[in-house]
Amino acid sequence: MTQALTILHIDCSPRLESHSRQLSAAMVDQLLARYPGPEVLRRDLGLEPIPHADAGYAAALASPASLAAGQANGDLQLSEWLIQEVEAADVLVIGTPMNNFTLPSVFKAWIDQLLRVGRTIGMSASGEKIGLLADRPVYVGIASGGVFSGDQARQPDFLTPYLKAAFGCIGLHSLQFLPLQATAFLDPGQLAANRDALLATMDLAPAARAA
Q1: Which value, to the nearest 10 degrees, does the dihedral of the CA atoms of residues 90, 19, 29, 112 take?
Q2: Half-sphere exposure of 208 toward its Cβ, with a 13 Å CA cutoff?
């Protein structure tokens, strides 16, 4: 018997009515329609941002001895909570705006707590990073005022390559990006049609394998 799906739903925009929030909510709805009865965990980085890495966290990662001390005094507690949220999820659904060609700082702060050598990242004898987390589907809905992909691209994209590298080094390779572009120029009707077209491309098969 297939177990119920656990979805970690993350939003990064500070605006409740943002395009990225609407897109991520619709992505979750796609999963709910396909796999009834899942548990949805919520992490709202836009409305409840986590702090950026502080001196205690940085010091804890400096050496094996300081790492042990950091685990004892609580400097790694937030990091551990966030990692365990990801470990508890079968699927991640992330909604994020593209800010100045890349991801918002609140999203980067979350990633900085997630990428931790010895916990989510291992090292080979040659120094190559090895992901320690089991792979799972990661659906990333991106809202961009401009156009950063396709034949009409007019701006750089530092968001998707970074996320591929960051998630890949902890073991998450099954990423699917759904970019809603030109939100600053298109009328609401066209944006809604583009959003529906994106949702139709969402590959739900990896989520079935994760369940």
Answers
A1: 10
A2: 7
Give buried/exposed letters for 57-92 (b at 16+ CB in 10 A, else e).
beebbeeeeebebbeeeebbebbeebbebbeebbbb
69: its two tokens: 């001390």
Indicate if the alpha-carbon torsion angle 104, 108, 110, 111 is positive or negative. positive
Alpha carbons 157 and 160: distance in angstroms, whole number: 7
Rounded to 5, what percent of the chain is helix, strand, coil?
40, 20, 40
Angle at 41 between CA 25 and CA 13, to 5 degrees: 45
Give the model confidence (pLDDT) of 32-84 as tens digits. 999 888 999 999 999 999 999 999 888 888 877 777 666 767 889 999 999 99
Among 30, 186, 34, residue whose Cα is nearest residue 95 = 30
- Tell me how far CA of residue 80 lies from CA of 44, 51, 74, 95, 186, in angstroms: 17, 14, 10, 22, 41
pLDDT at residue 2 is higher than 60: no
Tokens of 2: 């297939």
Hey, what are 41's tokens? 């965990």
Contact 174/204 with Cβ under 8 angstroms? Answer: no
Strand order in the sheet with 138-143: 39-44, 6-11, 91-97, 138-143, 175-180
Tell me: pLDDT of 6 over 80: yes
